[in-house]
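Interim report, section 4.2 (structural modelling).
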Amino acid sequence: MNAAPKPLLEVSDLTVHAGVNDIIRNISFTLDAGEVLAVIGPNGAGKSVLLKTLLGIMPATSGAITWSAGVHVGYLPQRFLVDLYLPMTVGEFLDLKPHRTISNERALELVGIERGWLARRLAHLSSGQLQRVLLAWALLDDPQVLLFDEPTENVDVAGQESIYALLHHLQESMHIALLIVSHDLHVVNRYATNVLCLNQKMLCFGTPEETLTKERLTTLYGEHTHFKHTH
Amino acid sequence: MDTLQLFTFISGILVAAASGAVGSILVVRKMTLLSDALSHVALPGIALGILLNFNPLVGGIAVLFFGVLLIWYVEMKTKLAIESVTGVLFVTALSIGSLLIPQQDILEAFFGSVRNISINDAVLQACIALAIVAITLRYLKPLALSSIAPDLSVASRVSQPLMELFLLILIAFTISVGVSFVGVLLMSALLIVPAVTAKNIARSFKGFVGLSMILAIFSLTTGLILGNVYGINPGLATVLVSACCFFVSFFFRPKM
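Predicted structure of the assembly:
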């Protein structure tokens, strides 16, 4: 019998190329059940690419991504553009989910939205409301992990705080592991179990206390020419 | 109405329903130009059918099927946008088709030739159209998901390239049964105009797809009747009816 349970996700030596350029290089980390892993790094560091590769939306060039058997993964994309004239209600959108274990009503309840929203048009929602609907979508198949790519544009600060409070609540009450791409160090310090600093290659992986030192953040977000990190 | 006309009329209803259903997916997927270009690809097949004395409908299906496989394959291999690949293929097919097709048949190939539809053609078209409607409605959810949210679709383990191929094949069959009614130049009118009209009016997705089918049926049947009564080309009449519906739809838009 294994003493330690296997991690939900194990990534080893992951490299992703687009054309001839490396987008991310030699990334290794693990994610355990109920954990919150925050991925931080400057723009263009490959954070969204990492998430998309984990989901199979983009192909990995080399390395291994091992999800534990039968795990359900939910995904909240960074951007979800809805055509302003798309004739589709929230209920119809949730009905498109291919695999599901809970009802639309239950999923909306989990994200704190009234049932009446099922008849509202997707195109009429604000970006924050749409994000909650997407979270409800992700919860429909009772996921053990949620991958959340924080939006960089049109961010409504109050909306973001409430989505984090909601994610935190889901993580605690349903024991869902979270893998979040965040730009907000406050969020990272407050919620993350582990932090992965990414700027094409992996610059750190550990708890927020040990990783988020002033020196390291300068290295991560400062000028590229100042890279002097060795592992 | 004689037997042939009745068969043509019934076949027309089913072909229009198929166009409305497939067209609604094309419109939410913003692939309207693709269907326009693709319909011209049928032309060399129709030409070969006329020249070599086999059913032009079968020729059209064969060439379109080959065409979509080629488009899909080139797109997969080169990552060129699907519209660019189709653009090249369509002008090539249009030129070859126009060269091959006998002069006296060219206008009918371009704008439809309802009076040339035989009972056998009508039955074959009706069967194919019925299958298209059934398959499209059966797979409406994955088709819609891969169109409005490709990332969520892939994350839910629905293969995007396979959905694309599936949709291309549906378009190919829809075009091949529709061209004898409205011709290769106007086929996209039957696919697209009812769907964009329905999008103007509908509030839900089910309403949108249903309305798109109803509007396509209304346009085609009205076109056939007008063609019969006034002795004009029913294909052209169909397109004009659908365009009128589109302009009228602006007065019925739901409030934002």
